[in-house]
Amino acid sequence: MKKPLVGAFAALLLLGAGAAPAAADAGQDRAPAQTDSQSAAPTQSKPKQKPKAVDFAGTVALSNCSGAVIRLPDSEPQDPALVMSNGHCVESGFPRPGEVLVDQPSTRTFTLLNAAGRGVTTLRASKISYATMTDTDVSLYELTSTYEQIESAHRIKALELSAERPAAATAISVVSGYWKRVYSCDIDGFAYQLREGAWTWKDSVRYTSDCKTIGGTSGSPVVDEATGKVVAVNNTGNESGQRCTDNNPCEVDENGNVTVRPGINYGQQTYQIVPCVGVGNKIDLTAPGCELPRPAGE
Fold first, then answer.
1. What whole-number distance in Å separates Cα of residue 178 and Cα of residue 110?
2. Of 13-17, 19-23, 53-57, which one has max mean pLDDT?
């Protein structure tokens, strides 16, 4: 993860975008695709087809990262809307390994973008519903606005999280609200474990090298171009070829073998969030099928 972008000077220098270890902030580095069984061997990516254009509608810009207004398959129009970004992008700084934040007060603001990438309004959080950098790298903010209010005022719909695990060779777009840029490539494969500094993530999405994401793209939704649904959240990349250090994640397979892929970028899958969000968009870590990390002692 790259470090958070702070102010215009940092932005000009393209310093990291999120608040997590080396790779998590900008989702930086690509590597050869692993197979759908999560092997370390690269796979051939099929020719890209783009059934529908991916735009910026529903994405947001944070002070240091990217994100999106997201809904679950069962979310209702009157539910408080959720913004998804990275755990390393939360305003309190990187969560420690094993740390899980649930229902923490927050007044953070987000700039909502329309399809053309123009900011149309400022959204405000009421709390951090969930955030962690353990096993995954995600944050969910509950807003003071409902989906219905946002759509009525701005004609912008939330992006829907897919409830299905994505497949290798899927054509994807990484949509950065911070930079107002779309990076298009394929899912190259999956890392059984992705290690960066003190953090370890599981079953991470590896991009093909066309997605040259940079600092500030941390937290960007990763959109399946065929369905328009979100399948991952962008979070890191190997910047200089180092092994398992901050900003230089490495892949570790089931047998403990380490692979370093300089310049390859990664995201964290999001389908596993779906079972953990219940009625009224409330986080329920005890719900059937929910496997997100829980706070210590629960």
1. 10
2. 53-57
What phi and psi, each to the nearest 5 degrees, are found at residue 95? -60, 140
Q: Smallest Cα–Cα separation from 124: which of 57, 78, 218, 60?
A: 60
Could you tell me where the beta strands, DSSP code E, fall in 10-91? Answer: 59-61, 66-71, 80-85
Write down the residue that tokens 């380490």 correspond to: 258
53: pLDDT confidence band, cut at 50, 70 and 90?
confident
Q: How far apart are CA 219 and CA 209, in angstroms?
A: 19
What DSSP line would sit under 157-189, residue for residue? PPEEBPSS---TT-EEEEEETTTTEEEEEEEEE
Does 43 have pLDDT greater than 80?
Answer: no
Task: Pull the structure tokens for residue 167.
Answer: 């497949």
1-292 topology per CATH: Thrombin, subunit H (2.40.10)
pLDDT at 2: 54
Q: Model-level pTM?
A: 0.86
CA distance 63 to 46: 36
Predicted local distance difference test score (pLDDT) of residue 192: 98
**Residue 150: enclosing H or E segment and its boundaries?**
helix 147-154
DSSP structural state of residue 2: P
| Domain definitions of the chain by residue range | 1-292
Nearest to 140 by CA among 78, 75, 69: 69
Residue 287, SS3 per DSSP: coil
Name the token pair of 152: 């009525």
Label residue 7 left, alpha or beta by phi (over 0 means left) and psi (-120 to 50 means alpha).
Answer: left
